[in-house]
Structure formats: structure tokens, C-alpha cells
Amino acid sequence: MSTSPTPSEREKQDAEARAKEAVEQASLPYKWTQAIGDLDITVPVEAKFKGRDIDFVMTKEKLKVGIKGQTPIIDGTLPHPIHPSESTWTLETTPTGKEIAIHLDKTNKMEWWAHVVTSAPAIDTSKITPENSKLSDLDGETRGMVEKMMFDQRQKEMGKPTSEEQGKMDMLKKFQEQHPEMDFSNAKMS
How far apart are alpha carbons 187 and 180 in whole angstroms? Predict the structure, then answer.
């Protein structure tokens, strides 16, 4: 019979998993961050390199970054598709040399990535705490759904009917007006 770990055991397991993840991510030859809609990667390179020395290939599902004539620094399949025409790369000077700064525009703007390429170690995306976003950042359908949920929540807090309950009441009222001969005094809405 298996038992669930105690809260302290789960906390210890989570801490060990976070430490392992941190070591794996630190050992990568690049750093990366993401927002829900895009992903940014920085790849440090020596100061002597210029843009023409960079070997960069990006498609909807693949990414290859490196120095011409050398083993690629990143070379693999992306875990999810991107918009190549909306994604960019630049070579920037830093205090310690230069870095290739890559911006990938995700096709699915509602999905966290566990890694940059599928061959890299994954992070636990369930532990990501997203930054607060504005309703205006959401696509139309998602925004409408969120606004409806917020309206319904406010209505419940005030003891008023939700949009769905209001719709049922309006339908009943319309039916009552169309059928004045019927008695609705004992009608109950569920």
C-alpha cells in the first residue's frame, strides 16, 4: 500500500527537484526566460565575433545557433511551434564580451515551455508563477470568457444572479409575457 508523502516530505522533494533543475539550467551554454507569449534566450560568445560569424537557422519548429565552423551551441527541435517572421536575433555587446540575444514569438500564446529545445533538460512548468497580465493582453475569446467569469463572481458576492441565471430568468419572464393565461406562482428555477 503506497501512502502520500507528508507535507514536510513533499517540501523536501520539491526543494531537491528545484535544486536539480537549477543545476541543470545553470550548466546550459545559454540562459533563457519566458513570458506566456514569448521566449528570450541569451547565448554568450567571445567579443571577437561579428554578426557574419554567427550560424543562425530558425524555422517554425527548429533552432540552430552557433559560430560558423564550430559545433552549434543550440541545435534542436523546439517543443512547440513559433512564428519565425515575428522572431528575431541580434548580436549585442556586454561588459564581458558579446551575446546573441534571441526572441522567439510563440504560436500558442497560452502555453509555458519546459525547455528551449527538446534535447535540453526540462523545467517543471507547473511551478511557474506568471506575472500579472492585463485583460487587454488577452485574445478576444479568452478576454470575453474572463470578463464573464469576473462579472459572475461580482454578482455572486453581491447575492445577485450570475449571467446564466439572469438569462434563465429573462427567458422565463418572456415566456410568462407570451402566456398570460398560465399560472407561474409556484414555478421554481434551478
Answer: 14
Question: pLDDT tens digit string along 107-147?
Answer: 998 888 999 999 998 888 877 766 666 777 777 787 888 88
Mean pLDDT of 82-96: 95
**Which residues does 64 contact at the CB level (< 8 Å), separation at least 6?**
55, 56, 57, 58, 72, 74, 75, 76
Are 36 and 130 contacting, i.e. CB atoms less than 8 angstroms apart?
yes
- CA-based angle 136:113:131, to the nearest 5? 40
Would you put residue 69 in left (φ > 0), alpha (ψ -120 to 50) or beta? left
The cell for 91 is 548580436
